[in-house]
């Protein structure tokens, strides 16, 4: 409890000033000549709460402004007013004591946030110190400078890794969507733009050329097979015509042989010719079937090149995207670690202080004087430190 007990005109003046929501104890005393001592006024309300407008309501005097005045000054003012209003012979002695003050709340980037007792002259810097300072969570080194350098080096590595993954993801996305060019995102390190993009462009062109080469070979094979089938079908028509003629000749020769007009040698020759043509017909049909099977395999291979390649690239893209998200998360962690360590060395450079006073939010510095009830939020400035 902060006490500023002041006997008007007698007690020493303390530095506190009264603020809204303060609880005051006001005692009025006068000299009792019979008792030979100071006696408190009976029936006097002693506890008052300063309202949001900074005022209190005092018996006989009505509404008085209390905020932004010191307890001694308020006590003297009440004593003078009571003397005039009540027509007293002597000025009473009035003591004003601040018995309770709203705490200051500290939150954000602090070790031990929450409410803390207000002290006169408290600044945001002092509140930060009383809240335990900046938490260095996840930092193993006990040397802040060394830890900051390590975090910044790690941060630089993560930036390069993120750029590599981002350009790779852009290339894989273009391959999955079968685009003619890669739409690269902006990179964290502009100096690496040319090297990383050129590398992915070369891979993109090499993969596309290899795919086109394989598809071209398959298309060539398909054309050859289709031409072969067409030739075999034409040959098959010719064989069937010849076979029909040979069968007619065989029947005629068999009839002549039965009447003794043709010898056995002639009949055997006709049978051999039919058999030969039947064999050619079978071979041509088998060749057509084989060519059709080869076409089916070539088309399946073409489908595998197109769809299988897309499926593989999609799987690679999903893996790369996951790695990219993990890298971004780790980079943000390292950025915060580097920023917190910088805040330890140079808090004004790295910290943003927001003070909520009443209904207003104000961006202030660490040396801003606080008042009771202030809510102080400590954050890192939204600017990357060392990348």
Question: How would you sum up this structure, described in words?
Answer:
With 387 residues, the chain is of the alpha+beta class. The protein folds into three domains: 79 residues, wza like domain (wza like fold), CATH 3.30.1950; 65 residues, Outer membrane lipoprotein wza domain like (Outer membrane lipoprotein wza fold like, Roll), CATH 3.10.560.10; 198 residues, Helix Hairpins (Orthogonal Bundle), CATH 1.10.287. It has six helices and eleven strands. The strands form three sheets. Strands 8-7-11-9-10 form a five-stranded mixed sheet. Strand 9 and strand 10 form a beta hairpin. The longest helix has 82 residues. It starts with 22 loop residues before the first strand and ends in a 7-residue tail after the last strand. The N terminus and C terminus are likely disordered. InterPro entries: HH_AprE-like, Poly_export, Poly_export_N. This is Chromosome partition protein Smc. Pfam families: HH_AprE, Poly_export. One of its GO terms (molecular function) is polysaccharide transmembrane transporter activity.
Brief synopsis:
This is Chromosome partition protein Smc. This protein is 54% helix and 15% strand.
């Amino acid at each position: 409890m902060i006490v500023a007990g002041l006997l008007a005109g007698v007690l020493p003046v303390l530095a506190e000033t009264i603020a809204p929501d303060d609880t005051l104890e006001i005692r009025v005393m006068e000299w009792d000549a019979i008792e030979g001592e100071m006696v408190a006024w009976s029936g006097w309300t002693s506890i008052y709460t300063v309202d949001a407008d900074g005022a209190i309501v005092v018996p006989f005097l009505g509404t008085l402004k209390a905020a932004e005045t010191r307890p001694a000054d308020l006590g003297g003012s009440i004593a003078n007013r009571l003397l005039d209003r009540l027509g007293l012979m002597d000025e009473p002695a009035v003591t004003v004591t601040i018995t309770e003050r709203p705490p200051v709340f500290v939150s954000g980037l602090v070790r031990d946030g929450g409410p803390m007792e207000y002290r006169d002259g408290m600044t945001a810097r002092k509140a930060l110190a009383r809240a335990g300072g900046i938490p260095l969570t996840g930092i193993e080194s006990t040397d802040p400078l060394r830890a900051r350098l390590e975090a910044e080096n790690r941060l630089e590595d993560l930036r390069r890794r993120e750029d590599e993954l981002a350009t790779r993801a852009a290339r894989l996305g273009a391959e999955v969507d079968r685009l003619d060019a890669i739409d690269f995102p902006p990179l964290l390190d502009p100096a690496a733009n040319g090297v990383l993009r050129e590398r992915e462009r070369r891979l993109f062109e090499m993969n596309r050329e290899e795919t086109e080469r394989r598809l071209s070979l398959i298309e060539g094979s398909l054309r050859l097979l289709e031409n072969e089938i067409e030739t075999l079908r034409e040959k098959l028509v010719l064989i069937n015509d010849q076979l029909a003629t040979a069968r007619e000749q065989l029947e005629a020769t068999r009839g002549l042989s039965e009447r003794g007009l043709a010898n056995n040698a002639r009949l055997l020759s006709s049978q051999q010719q039919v058999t030969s043509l039947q064999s050619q017909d079978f071979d041509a049909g088998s060749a057509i079937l084989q060519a059709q099977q080869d076409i089916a395999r070539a088309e399946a291979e073409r489908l595998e090149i197109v769809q299988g390649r897309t499926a593989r690239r999609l799987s690679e893209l999903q893996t790369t995207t996951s790695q990219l998200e993990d890298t971004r998360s780790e980079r943000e962690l390292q950025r915060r670690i580097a920023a917190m360590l910088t805040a330890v060395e140079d808090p004004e450079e790295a910290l943003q202080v927001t003070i909520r006073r009443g209904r207003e939010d104000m961006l202030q510095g660490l040396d801003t004087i606080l008042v009771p009830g202030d809510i102080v939020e400590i954050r890192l400035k939204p600017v990357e430190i060392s990348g």
